[in-house]
Amino acid sequence: MNSPDNFDKNSNVDQNEISKFNEIAARWWDPEGEFKPLHLLNPTRLGYISDQLGGLFGRNTLDVGCGGGILAESMARAGAKVTGIDMAPDGLNVARLHALEAGVNIDYQQSTAEDFAERHAGEFELVTCMEMLEHVPDPASVVRACAELAAPGATLVFSTINKTAKAYLFAIVGAEYLLKLVPRGTHQFDKFIRPSVLMRYIEDAGLELVDATGLHFNPLNNSFKLGAGLDVNYFVVARKPV
Fold first, then answer.
1. Contact at 8 Å (CB) between 30 and 112?
2. Domain ranges (residues) in the chain
3. 131: which DSSP letter?
4. Candidate CATH numbers 3.40.50.2300, 2.120.10.30, 3.40.50.150, 3.30.1360.70; the one for domain 15-240
5. How far is 39 from 24, CA to CA, in rounded Å?
6. Could you report the per-residue pLDDT of 156-169, keeping only the tens digit for each?
7. Phi, psi of 177, deg, nearest 5
8. Are 204 and 138 spatial neighbours (Cβ–Cβ below 8 Å)?
9. Which residues are documented as binding site for S-adenosyl-L-methionine?
10. Does residue 50 contact residue 78 with C-beta atoms inside 8 Å?
11. Residue 4's pLDDT is what?
């Protein structure tokens, strides 16, 4: 693949993406701000993740691309031992401060998945990578790193956006321009990932596919639900062989 000029080949980081999230980092925990969709969907995705493991209590968990900590903090509140990694320093600072104020113990570190895997291979019972793969130059590399970070028998949960005309209409035209749920420019259609491609990344990383389900938004009541159809947002669950 051709790499953009702002792609550091050694770190799989798009500096434009980091800058974009740093600029709005202070509003991570504003439920009516730019990250409102994440606040709305978090109960649904937390429940889905918990169901895949039969509960989160005591699970050694890594949240890759944790941002301001919305998912990481909710998993910690459910009893998981959580580490969160991200490359946007301002978002991590917000995550640390919010966890401190909330009295929640989470280990936040600035790192790529690839670098973290070199130091913590095989440590985690659960690895989550949510709404992150469409923001890096080489998503397959992130999937491989997640596989390395997972312990034998671990569960891995990925979420991203399908590369379809419907996804373009819903995730970009609808969410960014019409409903203004997220800032314009948040998503780039050419970075969206078809389920078949993500599943190939997962299998190439030595993981076993477990489940795939769609995530559907209802703008009439601002709610998300799980269901058939992977044509816009979707989850894929994998397991690392024992």
1. no
2. 15-240
3. S
4. 3.40.50.150
5. 15
6. 999 999 999 999 89
7. -105, -40
8. no
9. 45, 65, 86, 130
10. yes
11. 40
Give which of 242, 211, 241, 215 is closest to 228, Cα–Cα. 215
CA separation for the pair 52, 155 (Å, rounded):
8
Residue 51 parent element (H or E): helix 36-53
The token duo for 17 is 């993406």
Question: What is the identity of the amino acid at 222?
Answer: N
What confidence tens digit (pLDDT) does each residue in 42-94 have?
999 999 999 999 999 999 999 999 999 999 999 999 999 999 999 999 999 99
User: Which residues participate in the annotated binding site?
Assistant: 45, 65, 86, 130
Per the structure block, which two tokens stand in for 119? Answer: 């130091």
Report residue 173 as tokens.
């035209």
The enclosing H or E element of 92 equals helix 89-102
CA dist 178 and 83 (Å) reads 36
